[in-house]
Design a protein that fits this description.
Rossmann fold, alpha/beta, 16% strand, single chain, 175 residues, four-stranded parallel β-sheet, globular, 32% helix
């Protein structure tokens, strides 16, 4: 991987010759925002600006909000608690949509990421992805969020939407 932690942005991006492609990665059960750092670094080496989050729905092994509140993974044998997973999926979808709103804020790149004024995003290539429950999160967000232009998942955990899928009611229009 041609990526260095806290390294400089490549000239083609820092000078504005090529736009960065924004990409959100959603973790699976018992993961967090750093679980897939290898894959995320590889994506970054190909011109993606990868943004990850630790979902604060009880599915992350650890998450901490801006206000300092912390949450550890709920492990009370709830793996196949259908109602809980549906609630978590809704919260995850809300969290991701809040991040998308931030990403699409015109001041985000400079104010939140600290990039120079010449750096920009190619919003027409915005990607949503995830692994396992994060893959299901990515699918659900892509289904309901028109700003997501591309989608990829790694072993998505489809169980939460199994009934809709079997009835052919789960439609995804995003490539």
């Amino acid at each position: 991987m041609d990526v260095v932690m806290n390294g400089e942005l490549a000239d083609v991006f820092s000078k504005g010759n090529i736009k960065l492609i924004p990409l959100i990665f959603s973790h699976g059960l018992a993961g967090n925002r750093t679980t897939h750092s290898g894959q995320c670094r590889d994506l970054a080496s190909h011109g993606y600006c990868v943004l990850t989050l630790s979902h604060h729905d009880g599915s992350a092994n650890y998450s901490k909000k801006k206000d300092g509140s912390q949450l550890f993974w709920l492990t009370e044998g709830l793996l196949l608690d259908f109602d809980l997973r549906k609630q978590q999926l809704e919260l995850r979808k809300h969290e991701v949509k809040m991040l998308i709103d931030e990403i699409f804020d015109p001041t985000f790149i400079q104010d939140k990421l600290g990039f120079a004024d010449q750096v920009s995003f190619d919003y027409e290539k915005f990607v949503m992805c995830g692994h396992s429950f994060g893959g299901m999160t990515a699918l659900e967000v892509a289904r309901t969020e028109p700003r997501v232009k591309f989608l990829f998942t790694i072993d998505p955990w489809l169980w939460v939407k199994e009934e809709q899928i079997n009835k052919k009611e789960f439609i995804i229009d995003c490539p």
